[in-house]
UniProtKB/TrEMBL annotation:
This is histidine kinase. It comes from Paenibacillus spongiae. The lineage of its organism: Bacteria, Bacillati, Bacillota, Bacilli, Bacillales. Gene3D superfamilies: 1.10.287.130, 6.10.340.10, Histidine kinase-like ATPase, C-terminal domain (3.30.565.10). Its main location: membrane. Keywords: ATP-binding, Cell membrane, Coiled coil, Kinase, Membrane, Nucleotide-binding, Phosphoprotein, Transferase, Transmembrane, Transmembrane helix, Two-component regulatory system. Residues 118-145 form a coiled coil.
Length: 358
């Protein structure tokens, strides 16, 4: 392609230059002849010297045109080759980079010079390579994380099943129940992973409409009130009925349920959990506060990362997937909001959602 594009461009440039030269040369010769013959017709009685002058003039004209023609063609060839190379080089470089990218080499980049359309095309190609590189890294770490998360519980389940099979362990209802719980946890993790993948896909969209915040809080609380009662943790809320936001109802409830489930998990018996929502200038500020174990300062910057668990000593089988807060953050981001946590007595989660009143 390199040679073909370069040669084609050179032919186009040189051909154009030659055509222009030919046309101008022919017109100069024809015009000169026409004017000299007109002059000779009018002065028919002029002597021999005049026809000599005509002959020399014509000779000089033809010679200078031949030299000019030859010089111009050499110049047109040199300039044509140079320009064709200049134009084709970035395109050829881009083609090579695209070929390397398609063969899996995603760290290659086009070198960009100038600010013209070709430079913009090169920059777009580099941006595409950057995006693909990031996606590939994400895919690799995600696969490693998932494999790591599944390996331990699956190995445990396998060893338990083998012990039952070999008769080393009696399959008592408690033991079977603990296996069942582990399978439930793994199923939950797969469902959360699916949800997270869906949220990260370009097809993900919120179904937004104007909603009363307090009714979403009440619905979220309703889903967990039995669990709170069972653990004897007090759950309360404070939200004015006139706070309305444009949001995806189910997703806001999902956010609240995730935060309330975490608060319940990390708050001891007789503890308290409260939700409060207040209007701010252009936003609604929601806090979910508990009197639980709190989050260590060094964990705070990481709790929204995928599979991050604060309490390292906590067994995976009793803890969650480490995906809950990642999902919560994705949903808050999708609403154009902000979420952060702070350590105070227990833990406080703050969510700021833009009001966007209808
Ligand atoms: P998990 O399923 O492990 O709870 P999350 O993504 O929901 O995963 O939370 C990540 C980590 O953040 C938890 O492992 C825990 O250490 C910490 N965390 C979340 N909510 C609370 C809370 N209310 N109180 C104390 N720690 C919390």
């Amino acid at each position: 392609m390199n040679k073909r594009l370069h040669v084609r461009l050179a032919f186009i440039i040189i051909g154009t230059a030659v055509c222009i030269l030919l046309i101008s040369t022919i017109s100069v010769i024809l015009a000169t002849h026409y004017h000299i013959s007109m002059f000779l017709d009018q002065a028919a009685d002029m002597n021999h010297a005049m026809s000599q002058l005509d002959h020399h003039l014509e000779q000089a004209l033809v010679q200078s045109i031949i030299w000019m023609f030859a010089g111009s063609i050499i110049l047109a060839i040199l300039i044509g080759i140079f320009v064709a190379k200049r134009i084709s080089k970035p395109l050829v470089d881009m083609k090579q980079v695209a070929e390397q990218m398609s063969s899996g080499q995603l760290d290659v980049r086009v070198s960009i010079g100038g600010t013209d359309e070709l430079a913009e095309l090169g920059a777009s190609l580099n941006e595409l390579a950057e995006q693909l590189h990031r996606q590939e890294q994400l895919r690799i770490t995600m696969t490693e994380d998932i494999a790591h998360e599944l390996r331990t519980p699956l190995a445990t389940l396998k060893s338990h099943m083998r012990a039952f099979e070999d008769g080393i362990w009696e399959p008592t209802p408690e033991r079977l129940h603990s296996c069942y719980e582990e399978i439930e946890r793994l199923t939950g993790m797969v469902a959360e992973l699916e949800d997270l993948t869906h949220m990260e896909s370009p097809a993900f969209q919120l179904v937004r409409q104007e909603e009363q915040l307090v009714s979403m809080i009440e619905q979220g609380i309703g889903l967990l009130s039995a669990a709170y009662l069972e653990k004897q943790v007090e759950l309360s809320y404070k939200c004015s009925p006139d706070i309305r936001i444009i949001a995806d109802r189910n997703r806001i409830i999902q956010i609240l349920v995730n935060l309330l489930a975490n608060a319940l998990k990390y708050t001891p018996v007789n503890g308290r959990v409260s939700i409060e929502a207040v209007k701010e200038h252009n936003a609604v500020h929601i806090t979910v506060q508990d009197t639980g174990s709190g989050i260590d300062e060094e964990d705070l910057p990481h709790i929204f990362n995928r599979f991050y668990r604060g309490d390292k000593s906590r067994n995976r089988s009793t803890g969650g997937s480490g995906l809950g807060l990642t999902i919560v953050k994705k949903l808050v981001d999708a609403h154009g909001g902000r979420i952060w946590a702070e350590r105070r007595q227990g833990t406080v989660f703050h969510i700021q959602l833009p009001k966007q009143e209808a």
